[in-house]
């Protein structure tokens, strides 16, 4: 599990994007870029993140909608608002604890 020690964020953590107005709950982590080259090339060159860093899968939300996001570690910050995330799929994988964190459901833990 060296990958887990090398990541800045963890499964169930609420994070927000450094540049864009969205936030979400991490539900999976890739130790380095693992999406399609087409997806990567669709990012404007000046804004493309390095591939050699962790990438996070998020149950994400912005003011208008909920969706799945794939974000590089360099573009994430911890969200400290304490506000719940409203993504409809959260309840399938997580329980929200009294302190506002998201704990993987027992059947989801390895």
Features:
mainly beta, 3 helices, 13% helix, 110 residues, globular, five-stranded antiparallel beta sheet, two-stranded antiparallel sheet, single chain
Uncertain residue segments: none
User: How many strand elements?
Assistant: 7
**Total of helices:** 3
Radius of gyration: 14 Å
Structure class: mainly beta
In terms of DSSP E residues, the strand content is 25-35%
Overall 3D shape: globular
Helix-strand sequence? HEEHEEEHEE
Largest sheet: 5 strands, antiparallel
What is the typical, i.e. mean, pLDDT? 91
Biggest sheet, spatial arrangement of strands: 4-3-2-1-5
Report the span from N to C terminus.
12 Å
Question: Helical percent range?
Answer: 10-25%
What would you say about this model in short?
The chain has 110 residues and is mainly β. It has helices at 2-6, 37-41, 90-93, and strands at residues 14-17, 23-30, 55-61, 66-72, 76-78, 94-96, 102-104.
């Amino acid at each position: 599990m060296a990958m887990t020690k090398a990541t800045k964020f963890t499964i169930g953590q609420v994070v927000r994007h450094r540049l864009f107005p969205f936030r979400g709950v991490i539900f999976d982590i890739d130790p380095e870029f693992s999406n399609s080259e087409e997806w990567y090339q669709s990012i404007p060159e000046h804004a493309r993140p390095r591939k050699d860093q962790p990438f996070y899968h998020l149950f994400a939300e912005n003011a208008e909608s909920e969706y799945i996001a794939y974000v590089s570690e360099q573009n994430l910050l911890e969200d400290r608002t304490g506000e719940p995330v409203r993504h409809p799929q959260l309840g399938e994988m997580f329980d929200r604890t009294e302190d506002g964190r998201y704990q993987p459901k027992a059947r989801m833990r390895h």
